[in-house]
Amino acid sequence: MILLDTHIWIWWKSRSQRLSSKALRIIDENKRDDGVGISVISCWEMAKLVERKRLTLTIPIETWIEQGLVGLTLFHLTPEIAIESTKLPGDFHKDPADQIIVATARFHGLPLLTVDRRILSYPYVTTL
Q1: In sequence order, what DSSP letters do the residues of 6-57 get, joined into one string?
Q2: What is the pTM of this model?
């Protein structure tokens, strides 16, 4: 199983050309085993992108997220993950959504598929 960062989820479900063939292959390999998940914070993060007009959709956000969750495991924000997000080892940046996504991956022992350089350079989470 893998965890998708928010932008990877959006690109994958939107069939964006921004998603690399390598990332698509990793998702497809894990999808066969019902092994693709996202953090619930990605739903919030996406809704904020739409609210701030940094992302435009052709359908309502509620519909997009409902359809975007089909076939995925949704990892909820638990008290343990919330606390873990405030205690990440080393020097991690202060974006709360990224902190929760990284904490979710660490808590569940999942590799995180991302292209975010700040996350890729963080040595305390396995990234793909």
Answers
A1: HHHHHHHHHT-TTS-HHHHHHHHHHHTTT-EEEETHHHHHHHHHHHTTSS--
A2: 0.95
